[in-house]
C-alpha cells in the first residue's frame, strides 16, 4: 500500500505562491530554554490547512490562530510574535520563542476572460506573468490550447451555461467579453451588469456594435449609469490627448496588449509598508527581551 508523504513547508510555500493563494509563513527566529523546535523551524499556514510543525501543543495552536487572524484581516507583511512556554502558551517547557509571521495575500485580482479565440489566447499569455487568477471561459468543445492546462493561476472552464458561469465568478472580478458569437457577448454583458460587484467589464467590438448592444440592454432594464460601466471597444490605442485613435494595429496580439494596458490601472494592488522587513529598532527590542 502506498502512503502519501505529507507536503513539507517549502513544497507548500512553492505551490501556494505559484498558484497565488493566501498563506502565512511562520519561522522560529530566536528561542531560549527548553523549546519544542530550534530557530529556523518553519511552518506554512492557510485558512484551512497547515504544513510542517513548530513543535505542536498550545504554542503551535496559538501561532496558527494568530496567522489566520492576520490572513482574515489581510494584515499583510511581517510581525514578530513572542511566546512564553509556561505563560501565554500554558506549556511546561519553561522556555520562550519568538516567531516571525509573514503574510502573503495571494493573487492581486481575478480576471475572467470569455472567449478562447485569437485575442483571448493572447490575453491569457500576457496575463501569465502577473499575480492574477485567470478564469478562461468558452462554450465550444476543445476550444482551449494544450499549453493552458500547465499554466499556474489559470482555470479553463467549458461554459455552456453563461448565466451560471457569470454567477460563479468571485466578487470583484474584472471581466473581458470577446466570444465568437455576438449573442453570447450580449448575454454575458447582461449577466455581468446584473451583478453589482464586478470590478470592471470590457467588451470587444466596434462603436456600432456597442450602440446596438446598449439599445438592447436598455430595453432589458439596465440604466444608463450601469451601461456606463462597460468599456467598449477594448484594445483601441489612445492618442496623446487620451482620445481613442482610428485605425492602428488590429492584430490579435496588438488588441490584447492594448486591452491589458487599459486594464492594469483598474486593478487594485495590495498595499504594504515601504520597508523591507521589520523596523530594526522594533526587532532589537523584541528579540532582546523575554516575553512575560
UniProtKB/TrEMBL annotation:
<feature type="domain" description="XdhC Rossmann">
    <location>
        <begin position="111"/>
        <end position="263"/>
    </location>
</feature>
<dbReference type="Pfam" id="PF02625">
    <property type="entry name" value="XdhC_CoxI"/>
</dbReference>
<dbReference type="InterPro" id="IPR014308">
    <property type="entry name" value="Xanthine_DH_XdhC"/>
</dbReference>
<feature type="compositionally biased region" description="Basic and acidic residues">
    <location>
        <begin position="272"/>
        <end position="282"/>
    </location>
</feature>
<dbReference type="InterPro" id="IPR052698">
    <property type="entry name" value="MoCofactor_Util/Proc"/>
</dbReference>
<dbReference type="InterPro" id="IPR029752">
    <property type="entry name" value="D-isomer_DH_CS1"/>
</dbReference>
<dbReference type="Pfam" id="PF13478">
    <property type="entry name" value="XdhC_C"/>
</dbReference>
<dbReference type="InterPro" id="IPR003777">
    <property type="entry name" value="XdhC_CoxI"/>
</dbReference>
<dbReference type="InterPro" id="IPR027051">
    <property type="entry name" value="XdhC_Rossmann_dom"/>
</dbReference>
<feature type="region of interest" description="Disordered">
    <location>
        <begin position="272"/>
        <end position="292"/>
    </location>
</feature>
<dbReference type="GO" id="GO:0016616">
    <property type="term" value="F:oxidoreductase activity, acting on the CH-OH group of donors, NAD or NADP as acceptor"/>
</dbReference>
<protein>
    <submittedName>
        <fullName>Xanthine dehydrogenase accessory protein XdhC</fullName>
    </submittedName>
</protein>
<feature type="domain" description="XdhC- CoxI">
    <location>
        <begin position="17"/>
        <end position="74"/>
    </location>
</feature>
<dbReference type="InterPro" id="IPR036291">
    <property type="entry name" value="NAD(P)-bd_dom_sf"/>
</dbReference>
Amino acid at each position: 500500500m502506498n502512503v502519501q508523504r505529507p507536503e513539507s513547508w517549502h513544497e507548500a510555500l512553492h505551490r501556494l505562491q505559484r498558484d497565488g493563494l493566501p498563506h502565512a509563513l511562520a519561522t522560529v527566529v530566536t528561542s531560549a530554554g527548553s523549546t519544542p523546535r530550534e530557530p529556523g523551524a518553519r511552518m506554512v499556514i492557510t485558512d484551512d490547512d497547515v504544513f510542517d510543525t513548530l513543535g505542536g501543543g498550545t504554542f503551535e495552536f496559538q501561532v496558527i490562530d494568530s496567522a489566520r487572524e492576520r490572513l482574515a484581516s489581510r494584515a499583510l507583511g511581517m510581525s514578530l510574535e513572542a511566546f512564553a512556554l509556561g505563560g501565554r502558551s500554558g506549556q511546561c517547557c519553561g522556555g520562550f520563542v519568538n516567531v516571525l509571521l509573514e503574510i502573503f495575500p495571494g493573487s492581486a485580482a481575478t480576471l475572467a476572460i470569455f472567449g478562447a479565440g485569437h485575442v483571448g489566447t493572447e490575453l491569457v499569455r500576457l496575463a501569465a506573468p502577473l499575480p492574477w487568477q485567470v478564469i478562461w471561459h468558452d462554450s465550444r468543445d476543445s476550444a482551449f490550447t494544450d499549453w493552458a492546462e500547465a499554466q499556474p493561476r489559470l482555470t479553463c472552464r467549458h461554459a455552456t451555461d453563461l448565466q451560471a458561469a457569470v454567477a460563479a465568478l468571485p466578487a470583484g472580478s474584472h471581466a473581458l467579453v470577446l466570444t465568437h458569437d455576438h449573442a453570447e457577448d450580449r448575454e454575458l454583458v447582461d449577466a455581468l451588469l446584473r451583478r453589482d460587484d464586478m470590478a470592471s467589464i470590457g467588451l470587444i467590438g466596434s462603436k456600432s456594435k456597442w450602440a446596438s448592444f446598449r439599445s438592447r440592454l436598455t430595453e432589458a432594464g439596465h440604466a444608463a449609469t450601469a451601461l456606463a460601466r462597460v468599456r467598449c471597444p477594448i484594445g483601441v490605442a489612445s492618442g496623446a490627448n487620451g482620445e481613442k485613435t482610428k485605425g492602428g494595429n488590429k492584430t490579435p496580439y496588438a488588441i490584447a496588449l492594448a486591452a491589458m494596458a487599459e486594464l492594469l490601472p483598474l486593478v487594485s494592488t495590495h498595499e504594504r509598508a515601504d520597508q523591507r522587513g521589520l523596523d530594526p529598532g522594533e526587532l532589537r527590542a523584541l528579540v532582546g527581551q523575554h516575553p512575560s
